[in-house]
């Protein structure tokens, strides 16, 4: 199954301040994540300040792929998520450093030996996640939520993963907003961070 190509229309202003179409066509940045085949990032737009600059600046999506939003900014993308496979669920955690490195944030991965899913991760942001087509399961530390088209998740910096148990690809739309943890939450998270365990066979 393949999803439709995403068309993006970007507006702007001419020298007289009249509204014009700056560009109209497919997204210039569409990237399949090599470490998780079938996972495709479709970069739509991003802003890099608050309030966002309203200008005719160049397309911000042609820079290197980054998972989180810019500081004090936002990021909008579609993500195509393939079905989980037994092999991925059994051995996917070994690829997560590579996978998150591809999207510019290796430290976002929180997967451990007892994690409920290989894709567990966390970013210091508020994310709006909308299921566009297909089915998805939101996995948290102590809960799971089944999602259907039209479901919206407000992800407030929590440890989570997206599990596709439907047997077919799912397309989601995400809008990520840079954030900062409440001090009490930041302290609780810092207290739960465990030191990394040495790899099997490593010197102790």
From TrEMBL:
Ranges for domain Cupin type-2: 118-175
Pfam families in the record: Cupin_2 (PF07883)
InterPro entries registered for this protein in UniProt: Cupin_2, OryJ/VirC-like, RmlC-like_jellyroll, RmlC_Cupin_sf
SUPFAM superfamilies: RmlC-like cupins
Highest taxon of source: Bacteria
Alphabetical list of CDD domains matching this protein: cupin_BLL6423-like
Coiled coil: none
Name of protein: Cupin domain-containing protein
Species, as recorded: Trinickia dinghuensis
């Amino acid at each position: 199954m393949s999803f439709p190509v995403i068309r993006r229309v970007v507006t702007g202003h001419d020298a007289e301040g009249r509204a014009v179409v700056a560009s109209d066509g497919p997204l210039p940045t569409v990237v399949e994540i090599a470490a998780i085949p079938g996972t495709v990032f479709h970069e739509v737009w991003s802003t890099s300040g608050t309030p966002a600059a309203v200008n005719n600046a160049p397309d911000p999506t042609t820079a290197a792929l980054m998972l989180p939003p810019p500081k004090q900014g936002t990021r909008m993308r579609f993500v195509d998520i393939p079905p989980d496979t037994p092999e991925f669920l059994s051995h996917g955690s070994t690829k997560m450093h590579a996978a998150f490195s591809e999207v510019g944030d290796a430290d976002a991965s929180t997967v451990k030996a007892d994690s409920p899913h290989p894709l567990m991760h966390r970013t210091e942001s508020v994310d709006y996640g909308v299921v566009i087509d297909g089915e998805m399961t939101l996995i948290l530390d102590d809960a799971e939520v089944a999602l259907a088209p039209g479901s919206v998740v407000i992800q407030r910096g929590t440890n989570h993963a997206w599990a596709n148990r439907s047997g077919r690809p799912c397309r989601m739309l995400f809008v990520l907003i840079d954030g900062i943890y409440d001090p009490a939450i930041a302290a609780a998270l810092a207290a739960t961070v465990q030191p990394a365990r040495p790899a099997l066979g490593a010197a102790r």
